[in-house]
Design goal:
The chain is of the alpha/beta class. It is built from 15 helices and 15 strands. The longest helix is centred in the C-terminal third of the chain and has 20 residues.
Length: about 425
Amino acid sequence: MTSTRRSFLRTTAAAATAAGLTNAVTAGRIQDGQGRGGDELRIGLIGCGGRGSGAITQALSTKGPTRLVAISDMFIDRLEGCLEALGENSAFKGRVDVPKDKRFVGADAFQGVMASNCDAVVIATPPHFRPSHFEAAVAAKKNIFFEKPVAVDGPGVRRVLAATEEARKLGLSVVSGLQRHHQYGYLEIMKQIHGGALGKLQFARCAWDMGGLWVAERQKQWSDMEWQIRNWLYFTWLSGDHITEQHVHNLDVINWAMQAHPTKARGMGGRQVRTEPKYGHIYDHHSVSYQYENGAWCFSECRQIDGCLNDVSEHVYGTQGEAHMDSGRWNIKGEHEWTYDGPKNDPYQTEHDDFFASIRNGKPLNEGRNVAESTLTAIMGRMATYSGKEITWDQALNSEEKWGPDSYEFGPLPVDPVPMPGKKRG
């Protein structure tokens, strides 16, 4: 199950060609069972929160006809809110076609979408649920867009890796929410890095330091389970902690630049400011050092504390220069000076453009291994900060430690204690 450098390179190469698919001429060759009604693609949405509502808006905004035909969520209010917002968008008139018998609510609601007559599914549930939802989508032979991260623990990553290979055999498109792989500036600077502009890579650093995010204040009528799922950012079993849920973007860029995943990690973190019960039990800061097989190190940090320095960026240093990246600038300093001055794009839209173009052109993208390896990189870092120990890639990948309950009935669910290094599980 352990991935190889060669498999990582294959995945990276596939992602690097994604932008070219966006403007490709539709060949008219749709895979068997897809594109009913000409080249219209029918979509099912699983998860109607903020990211799900945004993702389906982008899916319906791609080139070529698309239609939303099935929808599911754990909660009826979120499902209805999503449909209401879509119905108010005149651009989608006639393309949000979800009868009541195609609206599914509850823990098993995703199964209704899988059984529906859709060609592609958008999976935007909390990260804990993504391995099972992804497996079900592959089993149902659906093309899949799923958000990052794709798991919260080693067992979940292994499930995603196995389902990814099955999707490859079936010729399904699998695109993830690591949108930098579809952002022109990142694509071009990676060509420079991989072409040798920095010389031999020696070390890297990356950060996602910012203030706080949303909180779902507990309502009296909510059970423990309902509150935790609605407030999912703050529970490791649901989000993987913010190093996994958010910092995965930066770690993915470093893996991309290195063309490999790290072999071990050590770090520290804690819960210093965001300590109220409404913030669950996750940390508010992490600092992790990762080592790669070639001897290079990445020094990473992430923080969600108000009133502090904000920094969301990635930096790679080699024997001949250094590369600096964020969402709006990409440049290289050193022997081979370079600045990206080409067109800019909305990568959140482009990733969906590329996804649907790949289906229509019969040239499936498969980003499953890449997002699984980047997810495991973040999980490995969290295991290091929670435990205070050095964690290897194989330890993280082969761990049998599973986060979260086995069933999701609304009722009591004690909050795990805050992880304590030297005492707590990873």
